[in-house]
Amino acid sequence: MHALKTLGISIGASALATSLVAPVFAQGNFGQVEIKTQVLSPGVAVLFGAGGNIAISHGDDNTIMIDDQFAPLSAKIEAAVEELGAEPVSFVVNTHWHYDHTGGNEHFGETGATIFAHHNVRKRMASGGSAAGNVSPPAADAALPIVTYDQGLRFHQNGDTIDLVSLGGGHTDGDSIVIWREANVVHMGDLYFNIASFPFVDVESGGNVYHLLGSLGMAQAMMDDDTQVIPGHGPMSDKAGLMAYRAMIAESVSRVEALREGGATLEEAIAAKPLEEFGRTGGFIGPDGFVTAIWHSMDAK
What is the pLDDT of residue 28? Predict the structure, then answer.
């Protein structure tokens, strides 16, 4: 696919706190959460709060929201959308099923928004499941995506062409990225963690590190050096940052593969500490957890 077209649009960005909220799956003190807004181009913005990063498309047609964090934050998110000068949310897109990205679905579904996602997002939300040891019960009907797809969909809205694209997953089996073709912005969902954590490959939800590498490779091939990249967690990034992240994952996989091919057990591979030099020891997923995810991905492969 061709690189995204860039129009040389000037960027207006609000000041962001140096410490952004890392991915969380447990309930927190949401009353203290502040929603921070960064404008990426006219009609496109990102909201940082608790949980997954939110993207907003707004303009003459509709307001489209990509992910909606936790349910208790819905009023704060609505206020942030209003401060952008946008109309109430008409469409919600879920990049995957985890509840730090879909927690607001029920609220926005009940207020009239149409929810879009990959087929597997609806399946997993409807049946409930666990992620990182936290259990999500089956979602309420109002929270479920009512428009689902396999490979993708396209919005022609707000003066842009906005593509919802499934590249084969990796974080889960229902990941989508969202591409603004004219604004040259991509929301990666949790395929990309721009924080001091190793990737979260949710094997229980069909995630697989080999699929993750494939999805990241295809995504970066769609970008150019000016593409603004919204990660699932952490501050804004770009193509170079995404490429470095993928290279780190590929090297991690090679090291674990070598240990396994040399006859190591999973326990021995963890004890060998093959990923320590990457310095990602204090994040959501540490090196031992990522070695384990790679190992189980190899089993699935």
Answer: 60
DSSP 193: B
Q: Are 223 and 179 in contact (CB under 8 A)?
A: no
Q: What is the rounded (10 degree) CA torsion for 214, 242, 134, 50?
A: -150
How far CA 98 is from CA of 18, 131, 134, 231, 269, in Å, comes to 25, 7, 10, 15, 29
Give the pLDDT confidence score for residue 16 in this predicted structure: 27
Q: Residue 275: which of 293, 296, 255 has the closest Cα?
A: 255
Structure tokens at 213: 């590498």
* Spatial distance between the Cα atoms of 210 and 151, rounded to a whole number of angstroms: 18
* Beta strands, E only, 119-167: 129-131, 134-136, 147-149, 152-157, 160-165
- Cβ–Cβ under 8 Å, residues 111 and 63: no
- The yes-or-no verdict on residue 115 having pLDDT over 80 is yes
Residue 49 and residue 80: Cα distance in Å, rounded? 11
pLDDT tens across 117-132, in order? 999 999 999 999 888 7
Backbone angles phi, psi at 115, to 5 degrees: -105, 130
Give the model confidence (pLDDT) of 59-79 as tens digits. 999 999 999 999 999 999 999
Instruction: Return the SS3 of 63.
Output: strand
Give the three-class secondary structure for 144.
coil
